[in-house]
Amino acid sequence: MTHFSGGPSFISTLICVLGILLPSIECHCPHMMGLKAPGPPSGPSPPGKFPDGDEGWDYDETAAPGIVPEPHFIQSTYIYRSPNVQEKTFSSRVVTVLKDIRSRLEKSARLTLENENIECSSPTDHYRCQEYPSTGTWNYLIVEDQQKGAATYTFDRKYNEKNDGTIEMALLDAFSRHSPSSLIAFASPEAEKEVGYIRALTVQEMDSLSGKNRHRQISMEKFGSNELNLLEPALLEVRTGSGLKLTSDSLRRIDSSKEFDKLLDEYKNVFILFWTSNRMVSLHTFNLWSRVGDKTKVDDDTLLAHVPCHESSEFCQGLNAEDYHTVVSYKNGQNTGKTENIGDEEFYENWIELSLLGPLQKLPNESKFTDFKKGIVNGKKRPSVTIGVFPSDQDTSFQHFQIATEKLAGKYYTAYFINENSKPAITTYRHSEKQKRTDYSGKFDPASLMEFITKSSIPSVIDISNGFTTDVLFHQKRPILILIGRDSEPFSKLSARQDARKNYIFTKIDGENKNIQKTKKALGIDNDEPVIVFLNKDRVHLIPTSKPKCPDHLQKLLQVVSSSEADNVLSTKNPHPLRYLQVENVNKQFGFEETIVLPDHTLFLDSDPFARHPPISESGGTGGCPFMQGGGATAASDSIPHSEL
Ligand SMILES: *[C@@H]1O[C@H](CO)[C@@H](O)[C@H](O)[C@H]1NC(C)=O
Questions:
Q1: 411 C-alpha vs ligand 1 centroid, how far in Å?
Q2: Residues annotated as region Disordered (predicted)?
Q3: Count of beta carbons in the 10 Å neighbourhood of residue 268
């Protein structure tokens, strides 16, 4: 009985079966849909007739104003899949009834109904069919009006095929919900005694409807604005490390697990790097961390520390290569987060600050709210901040926002403000951008909130003059645009468009140095003319900056270029041209060394074949050692006590 011929199982949940079998469950028949049924208040009896002598609201110039309905406009789409004769007969009856209703409502209810019928029975059908299942049988009515927006209704042959009257009643039921008053009164005499069955799809059903949405990958930016210029471990690996200072006066050195436990009790916040002088990457990370220790001022309840594992090998048992360049954070003795990113001093300072602030700040009053909006956090201007305004912290939208920010802990400046009179709203502000504010327009589910925070926070144009994080540009699918040499209004305007950033990564190179020269040469740029480089994996196209006249023109040029022959093809046997920019940053941090830049064909792949981590792990961190575990909220509640070490 509950099986629906040919339809996937979720379709069967759409139908009204339960509503009929179990009256206690919400019924989908018209009288229980919140409509004022003209008939008796209970029981599925057909709606009553209009009072005698009243010809309905049939427009009459002389009638009293109260009974003349307001003109109203509704747009609808009947979209259906009818794989067999039985279904085809039904859908063609629906089409006829719709036509009939349309002219009747126009005449007597001052309702303009624009309807489109779309059949989706073969793969070549209307493009809108793509939003719906490509198998099974279904009948949907999408109704849209100015006040309520769009809703999708499902109705079924089985329950509506009795006669054209049942079909009519089902359709009128749906249209009634988009009209100032019920339209049931305008039913034809044949329909009056019938009951049709139709119901609106829930948000969940809408999501699961289209195969695309069901499998829709949430696409997030992997890196926050503090993480766009991280150091590449592979480039540290090839250095000698000679001359680097490997002691620190300002970091607390920890030699045993006993001491470690004691300090976790003593300090509210502890940040620790476990490192070893036997590994080149680790040794460079320690050098940076010791500089952070010298420079960063922290409160008395906060401790910056290090564990030299080459001298306390027992304490560090079980750590893996990546753990040796990971800084771990603890709050009140609990592991609250970690970062395996290697960045300059400012990167670590920001990360510490973000960890101390926690994933989501509460803005106590309007003046704090105003400051945060301007990007000012702890007295400093930040490239991007995200603020949620909620009517209450009991609101589901707030709780989902909280979940999203906890998953992104340590990466973004996020805050919330409670305003009883406000609807939930989330906005990202980037004060140095052309487009300074970006509003969230999703359904307040944690996944789309995370997507929004990560995407709206990233700069439209990433400055790579002094290097960049490897996976920001490599191991991904989008072509890279590089503006070299001079500002270009078409370029910056195009980069401000979100849909353009979906297709390209916008970057720029300013200034001159030896490595920038090497990069340009390797890209095949042999003069100093300002140029926009279109880099699609190994294909290089060059567009003189003077050529595009406006953003649309540039977009057009990019489309043309992408399908035309490349100006230059990179060989994967040579070092990647952009690697030189990363080398520049490494030299800047640790002093110049003449290192060999190795070719690496994996930089051209869509994903890193050696990646150990998904970008944002769902289950918190996965260090090789218990005290490395956690990150974000999960760790705070179920972290493993350090005494287990
Ligand atoms: C707003 O809150 C901050 C932090 O609690 C406080 O220092 C400040 O005085 C408050 N401002 C006003 C106008 O109430």
A1: 26
A2: 38-58, 612-645
A3: 15
Alpha carbon of 151 to those of 76, 173, 174, 385, 387: distances in Å?
10, 13, 9, 34, 30
- The confidence score (pLDDT) of residue 552 equals 93
The partner residues of 427 in beta bridges, in order of sequence, read: 387, 439
- For a mutational test of ligand 1's pocket, the pick from 362, 366, 367, i.e. the residue with the most ligand atoms closer than 8 A to its C-beta, is 367
| Radius of gyration of the chain from its Cα atoms, rounded to whole angstroms | 32
- Lowest-confidence pick of 10-14, 58-62, 143-147, 563-567: 10-14
Final residue belonging to a domain, choices 342, 367, 392 = 342
Q: Residue 521: name the closest of 566, 574, 595 by CA.
A: 574
Distance 271 CA to ligand 1 centre (A): 30
Tell me, in angstroms, the distance from the centre of ligand 1 to residue 445's CA: 31
**Pair (470, 588) in one structural domain:** yes
The answer to whether residue 1 is domain-embedded is no
Residue 556, CB-side half-sphere exposure with 13 Å CA sphere: 7
Residue 245 contacts residue 290 (beta carbons within 8 Å): yes
Tally of domains within the chain: 3
Residue 73, strand partner residues: 112
Report the alpha-carbon distance of residue 3 to residue 25 in Å, rounded: 19
Residue 366 alpha carbon to ligand 1 centre in Å: 8
Residues in the chain: 645
Model confidence at 301: pLDDT above 80 = yes
582 and 519 assigned to the same domain? yes
What is the extent of the structural domain holding 99?
A: 72-209
**Which residues are near ligand 1 (CB < 6 Å)?**
364-365, 367-368
For atom 13 of ligand 1, the residue with the nearest CA is 367
* DSSP letters for 289-334: HHHHHHH----TTEEEEEEETTT-TTTTTT--GGGGG-EEEEETTE
Q: Is the pTM of this model over 0.70?
A: no
Kindly state whether residue 439 falls inside one of the protein's structural domains. no
Question: Are 474 and 567 part of one and the same domain?
Answer: yes
φ, ψ for residue 217 (rounded to 5)?
-80, 130
> 399 burial class (0-12, 13-18, 19+ CB within 10 angstroms)?
middle
Q: Please provide residue 427's backbone torsions phi and psi, each rounded to the nearest 5 degrees.
A: -140, 140
Q: How far is the CA of 365 from the centre of ligand 1 (A)?
A: 6
- Closest-lying ligand 1 atom to the alpha carbon of residue 364: 2
